[in-house]
Automatic annotation (TrEMBL):
Keywords: FAD, Flavoprotein, Oxidoreductase. This is Putative succinate dehydrogenase, fumarate reductase, FAD requiring protein. It holds the Pfam family FAD_binding_2. The keyword Zinc does not apply. It comes from the Bacteria. Transmembrane segments: none annotated. Residues 15-442 form the FAD-dependent oxidoreductase 2 FAD-binding domain. NCBIfam families: CobZ_N-term, PRK08274.1. GO terms for molecular function: oxidoreductase activity. Its cofactor is FAD. InterPro entries: CobZ, FAD-dep_OxRdtase_2_FAD-bd, FAD-oxidoreductase_2, FAD/NAD-bd_sf, Succ_DH/fumarate_Rdtase_cat_sf.
Amino acid sequence: MTPEHVIADHPLTYDVVVVGGGNAALCAAIAARRAGASVIVLEAASKFYRGGNTRHTRNMRCAHDAATATLSGPYPEEEFWDDLLRVTEGETNEQLARMMIRESKDMLDWIAEQGVRFQPSLGGTLSLGRTNSFFLGGGRAMLNALYLTAERLGVDVIYEAEVVALDIDTDRFRAAIVQQPDGRLRVRGNALVAAAGGFESNIDKLVEGWGEIARNFLIRGTPNNRGTVLDLLLAGGVDSIGDPTQCHAVAIDARAPKYDGGIITRLDCIVFGIVVNTNCERFYDEGEDVWPKRYAIWGRLVAAQPDQIAYIIFDAKSANLFMPSLYPAIEAASIGELAGKLGLDAERLSATVTKFNTSVRDGDFNPDILDNCRTENLTPPKSHWARRIETGPYYAYPVRPGITFTYLGVRVDHEARMMMKTGGPAQNMYAAGEIMAGNVLGRGYAAGIGMTIGSVFGRIAGSGAARHAAQ
């Protein structure tokens, strides 16, 4: 075994070194290789756990002009922009965001050309049949297809290859220092694409922004996204963008594991019930908008509650309207009994449910649109899908903030080149995916947009890195 302090040189210098192993990294690697570059992918995980958060994805959001075999209608660029503007509340780089949306129109065909297959969207509360394309077999199947294509093209992949240092000369990448099980390796390259994710699995780093409440957060995705590469880049003079507390955070089942629970721990039933904290108080409008546009606000909302936990309460009428979590709902014959099982005050919870029921104004319930079932004289209101919780048995899910990925990252330009703190672009350093998502997502989230950012900027970064290497 090579001692840790000894660094062996890789026998080859690559045109493009890609750090990361998920969607963004693979799109970059494939694009660079198709442009004629020699490419190596450095993936910190083992082969089985390769792919970072992409393993847990289901779909991507792309603009398109007409219905397809798997999409029910058009999704124009301007509508995509309006959706992004609404969820980010204007916290986005409009030039980069509009470029991403424009480029996304070609991505579905390009991704399919790399071997990825799509299926019609799922039903329930997702409401994504027109806007989002779903991967046949989910994120792992998508990853497998991309890896197969990359390897057939001649891309080299090293697993269990954690980048622990970067050799950066002013604004130029020279080499990555990689920790492997048997020692350290220097991998030299003419260009770098950083696609190594955010820092959501580094709890201490989350605490720096959020405070001690972050220790109660659950991490939906890979335990490998610790922000090491981001820290190395920022220390090397790359400019940062974003707020360390902004992230893709959803409400997930509180019984989920600390890391890597994935999509099956997410709960899509909030719109069909009410959500209370440990004081049995509602704290936000559960029916504000269609679920794909608002589901990602609930992680932050729950994070602001006592002990960072909340409870979704609903009744038998809604039990089959959504995709369930991995864990069964907690069931009881009465609201009082349900409160006891949750460790809540039965009298308080019963009073909250009664007050909600009294405020409900009947309408034409329709889970697929913004219907007219609402509350009156209730704070906070429930704007849509409000129905009395009165039909037993009664159900609950405990939820905690589930962090998917963080938005603090590296600043890039329209060519996906990293911007230096000195003001100009790096000579040969590019970024794609979660590590630069804050350029587009200053806050908020819309379903499937993380994969869009990774795919679009991955292809741009890989192509740009290959062009630079060729020069």
